[in-house]
């Protein structure tokens, strides 16, 4: 069954009626309801276009969190060949919220690392809903170091509400692990391309996203804090998340104007969850183009340009 967001309820009613008609026709082959069903399909398509034509930042947050959006594992399986997972931080444990390993993108060897949220109750619990612990970031540091040693470009797929804030994570040095992972992103002498495929939440996202290029899917979000967290701090009321989402300027469109996002990757009408294959293909095409452009540059140039990119953040787009 399709999962509908709150603002998609009118769409759910129309598509539900069309499916009911077709179900009746399957039970009674003498019924001819195709014309009525097609009329409902057309009405639903028009409504879908209208709903997604002018989305608020809060609605973008809802879409970015949609449980049926393709996740890191889906992108790896569809875009990369010969994926060989590498596990563990060589210090404490293997964090399943962060997955990574060696792979090939269009035949070229790369290191791919990303947050994985899981797709059902069991896998979401195992993946801790994409919220990494220190060992997850230390695994990412290890893999980025390995890629740097062997001259392999790094691709990161970011999709997390934020780093896990639990007691054990804090005891094992969560903030230090995030800082070291961010530092490693800035130090590697190979191309590093980051893609926000859903949520980019707080330092837990930055730790994998400080690359030469930051790509964002059209309906993804990237912010220092979640709208609910921001509302709880500023207004002492999490119900103010809509106002917080507006103020945070967390959409791909806002971040492109501010110079944070380098490229916005278009999504199918209705979001990546409506046509997962098309969304994944679009990401693959942009990744291939960016990889070609960056692969010609020397290590010292990549590091210098990456450093300059982040030192200059916040210097444009603020007047608007």
Spell out the blueprint of helices and strands.
Layout: H1 9-27, H2 34-53, H3 57-64, H4 72-79, E1 80-85, E2 98-105, E3 108-115, H5 121-126, H6 134-150, E4 154-160, H7 167-171, H8 174-187, E5 192-201, H9 202-209, E6 213-217, E7 221-223, H10 227-234, H11 241-248, H12 252-257, E8 263-265, H13 276-295, H14 299-311
Parallel strand pairs: 3-4, 4-5, 5-6, 5-7, 6-8
Antiparallel strand pairs: 1-2, 2-3
What's the short story on this structure?
The chain is α/β, with parallel strands linked by helices. The protein has 14 helices and 8 strands.
Structure commentary:
By secondary structure, this protein is α/β, with parallel strands linked by helices. The protein folds into two domains: 6-54; 61-311, 2-enoyl-CoA Hydratase, Chain A, domain 1 (Alpha-Beta Complex). It is 50% helix and 16% strand. The protein has 14 helices and eight strands. The protein has helices spanning 9-27, 34-53, 57-64, 72-79, 121-126, 134-150, 167-171, 174-187, 202-209, 227-234, 241-248, 252-257, 276-295, 299-311, and strands spanning 80-85, 98-105, 108-115, 154-160, 192-201, 213-217, 221-223, 263-265. Strands 1, 2, 3, 4, 5, 6, 7 and 8 form an eight-stranded mixed beta sheet that branches. Helix 1 (9-27) runs antiparallel to helix 2 (34-53), helix 4 (72-79) crosses helix 13 and helix 6 (134-150) runs parallel beside helix 8 (174-187). The protein is globular. The mean pLDDT is 92.
